[in-house]
Amino acid sequence: MASSVSAFATLSLCSSFATHCKVSNHHYRQNSLLFSPSKNPIFSIYNKPLSLNLTSSPLNSKPPRFCTIPKSSESEAAVVEAQPDNVEPEPEPAPVVEVAKEEPKREEIFAVVMVGGRQYIVFPGRYIYTQRLKGANVNDKIVLNKVLLVGTKTTTYIGKPVVTNAAVHAVVEEQGLNPKVVVFKYKKKKNYRRNIGHRQPNTRIRITGITGYQDYPAVTLSS
Length: 223
Known about the structure:
Blueprint: H1 2-35, E1 44-45, E2 48-49, H2 72-75, E3 110-115, E4 118-122, E5 127-131, E6 141-144, E7 147-151, E8 155-158, E9 167-177, E10 181-187, E11 192-198, E12 201-211, E13 219-220
Antiparallel strand pairs: 1-2, 3-4, 3-7, 5-12, 6-9, 7-8, 8-13, 9-12, 10-11
């Protein structure tokens, strides 16, 4: 009797489980038919078919990816590149030295010339102050013919009294006055006093060249 009751209970449990499985399968088919795409879809938005993909296999699904934002300390950290120890430094380029073109040196020469009763030693390129030259204006070219002596490194031309055909060429640069000279006169017991100043006129000339002495007999200096 007990065995028959347990068998009956087992059969009723199996039948109820079978009916439950059929009902769940029936509902699954209705849901799949409801949401399956067809030519005349039930739901539409803006006259376009609405397709819903509810089936997704858990095997093909990928886990979501989250972008990581680096911290300020990590992003701003200085990057230090390691350099090998056995690296030879690159040779520095040699500096370029520009060689200036040497100008031909002028011949070292001088002369002794007489101007207004005074003797002056002159060199080409230099200037001298002489007594006022009458009738000479600024930038006028003049020629001094009273050359008493001409000298070079190795040769001397001595005039008797002047060097024949020798000439000193110059240009007038300025007509001026010498510094003031005070002349004071005094007589005792007469209340006589005179204070007079004087500035002597002068002319500044620049020597440009010395020529015409080559044909004069020279005196060679022994080395």
